[in-house]
Design goal:
heterodimer; A: about 500 residues; 4 domains; 6-stranded mixed sheet; 15 helices; 17 strands; about 20% strand; B: mainly alpha; Arc Repressor Mutant, subunit A; 4 helices; 2 strands; globular
Chain lengths: ~500, ~110
Amino acid sequence: MKKTISIHLLGSNFLVEEDAYELVKNYLDRLNDSLRNSPDRKEICEDVELRIAELATAYLSEKKQVVTFEEMSTIINTLGQPEDFLEDEIAGEKEDKTNEKSSEKKFSKKERRLFRDTENSVIAGVCSGLAAYFKIDTVVLRIIFILLGFAGGFIIPFYIIMWFIVLSAKTNIDRLQMQGKPINLENLKEEFQEATYRFSKSSKKFEREISDKDSPLRQKITHLSSFFTKIIGAAFLVFGSILLIGLLTFTFVDWEVLHIEKNGFQLNFNQFCELFIVNKSSAFYLWIGILVAGLGIVSLMFIQGAKLIFRLESKWIKIVKIALFIVAFVGIGIIILEGSQTGADFTNRGEFEQVIGPDSTNVLTVEILNKNIPDNIHNDEDFDFEGFQILENEIIQSGISINYALSEDSLFHVYVEYSAFGKTNSIANQRSKNIKHIISLENHHLKISPNYSYSVKDKIRGQTVMLKIAIPAGKSVQFRNTIVRSEDIKDSGFINRYGEYEHYVHED
Amino acid sequence: MSLENTKAQMRKGILEFCILSILKNKEAYPSEIIETLKSAKLIVVEGTLYPLLTRLKNEELLTYRWEESNAGPPRKYYSLTKIGKAFLEELDATWDELQMAVNKIVKN
């Protein structure tokens, strides 16, 4: 195993083996050293660097990312030792004059350019590039930028535009050109024209870069998006875990685990099914369906999360994902199929009406019986949740709504309507008849229980008890805390599970 | 003076002329020039070329422009300047004379 090092050769990045790096560094140092007296030193060194980069690129492919020591040796042998090939070329003093002339040329108008100085940058090197160009102290320019940023804010979009338009100084030539001319009007005008041209060019380049997979811009975007991809992947894992915990709780532990509030569920799955689901086999299949769908979805989330985080990409993952999708769909299918059987049991509503009375008093007193369960059902700490209590084989529900009407004669009439749902009308009617409820009218006293009960065998099928009291004109109904007169017949009332009467005034 | 040295001197003298000739009708980037020179066995190591190109450019015989490459770093495409073209014409004529002169002497 060899250590690899990332090297930068004039704008290209390479991964090279450590000893290959030593080799190329030593080579370039020697080259630089051999050329120390030549004004062409920078340019020749860059040409050689470019060539090394070009030759190195030829060794690389999608699968092979690292330049080895052997390959670097071959490259250097191809180029030859600097001491050898420079001997004759540089020795002559006579060339110095022409070279001096050319080094002036380097700064001529045509080649002078504004660059971003990424090597001395705080953000993107716009300030340091401008400072180099206008020969201003970088710190001064930065302070100006910051002040302008506070003052107006337009400097921020300006900075971003400059970031996009102005290229970064990648090579040493760039860096030399960057250290341009003193500031004057002509230069500014020329630079502005060039900048407009570059802007139109760079917007085209932008388009091209977006579609080019290897472009630095695309890499930047890829980098950013891969960061978000990883966050999404992590979210998948977190939600997957939560779902899994929920599923395990649901499957293996009593629902009491989920009991948070006093009025929350305390049923385990079997007990819940007993109360709601049509029959035991349906409940079993429903349970299987939830398990299959749940495990399928959880596995999918885990696989997707892991795939996004670790950038896994393989045919097998796809196959497994498709398989899991099918599993989850099958599970959901079972849930729908079995659930619809239970749903069908809610399609027909049945009613059963009982008439109590009449009574001839002026004031009918309503006495709500103790909220406690009737004596014949003994309370043994079973289950209790909002409006329901389950004791042995009886489901006890509370809450009775009351409507009022005007009596057609001078007597009080009380109607109790029991209703329930069922697959057919007759089943629904039977269920409504099965509701047990205590109500009696004796000596001008209407005694009523806030609870009613029915057999567990009947299931919870929307059983309700409604009371209708017909009040003769001029007479009234007396609750413990409220009087309802014959003028108030549009109002309604409700006896809650604590045995209290709640009155609701009708508003037009 | 060794044989190798003499060979190297001979090659070096005509190397400039050959580079200018390669660029006579088309522009080329160093790798292309290298390939041509290598196949003609005029250069042994590539490094020789770069100081030469820089010198010719500084003498304003050559000029170059940058071009992006699909694979690898950008390339410098070299071409002859006006001065370079005139220079090459002179060299062409000189070379013809030289060749004839040399052949005459060697074969006799």
